[in-house]
Amino acid sequence: MTDMNTPEIADTVRWLERAVIGLNLCPFAKAPHVKGQIHYVLSEAKGLEGLRDELIEQLQALAAMPAEERETVLLIVPQMLQDFLEFNDFLDEADAVLEIRLDYLDHKDAIKLCIANL
Fold first, then answer.
1. 77 within 8 A of 41, measured Cβ to Cβ
2. pLDDT tens digit sequence for 57-113
3. At 75, phi and psi to the nearest 5?
4. Would you say the pTM of this structure is higher than 0.90?
5. How many Å is the Cα radius of gyration of the chain?
6. How many CA atoms lie within 13 A of 50 on its CB side?
7. What DSSP line would sit under the chain, residue for residue?
8. How far is CA 43 from CA 24, 74, 99, 102, 110, in A?
9. How many Å is the maximal CA-CA distance in the chain?
């Protein structure tokens, strides 16, 4: 289980509430937040390959869970991707992972990738 008391997760929740929901940047974000259906994961990856593996693991876990329990996963990566170009390059890899993995998942149309660099 994820420790919800980390500063990184607290910052992410605050960002979600104030920016994403508060400014209505994503009209779909409020419902899973209010219902407690968002799973916050603090990345432990030491490199981009490890981060890609974590992304794959979280996509698989999300697909395996009923939407009533877990509708959204926020993978928080405080130790990497601080450089915008590195962040942008990883977006391409994340999109490719999502496209490949969705071919094997039943939730093809339901899983969307949103990556923010806080």
1. no
2. 998 888 888 888 988 899 999 989 989 999 889 988 888 887 765 555 555 445 655
3. -90, 110
4. no
5. 14
6. 10
7. ---TTSHHHHHHHHHIIIIIITTTS-TTSHHHHHTT-EEEEE---SSHHHHHHHHHHHHHHHHHS-TTT-SEEEEE-SSS--SHHHHHHHHHHHHHHHHHHHTT-TTTTT--------
8. 26, 10, 21, 21, 23
9. 36
User: Can you tell me which residue has the tokens 């500063």?
Assistant: 7
88: tokens are 């942008």
Dig out the tokens for 68 from the structure: 């009533």
Tokens of 61: 């876990």
Structure tokens at 102: 């969705």
Alpha carbons within 13 angstroms on the beta-carbon side of residue 84 total: 0
User: Hey, what amino acid is at 108?
Assistant: K
Q: How far apart are CA 107 and CA 113, in angstroms?
A: 13
Tokens of 34: 């209010």
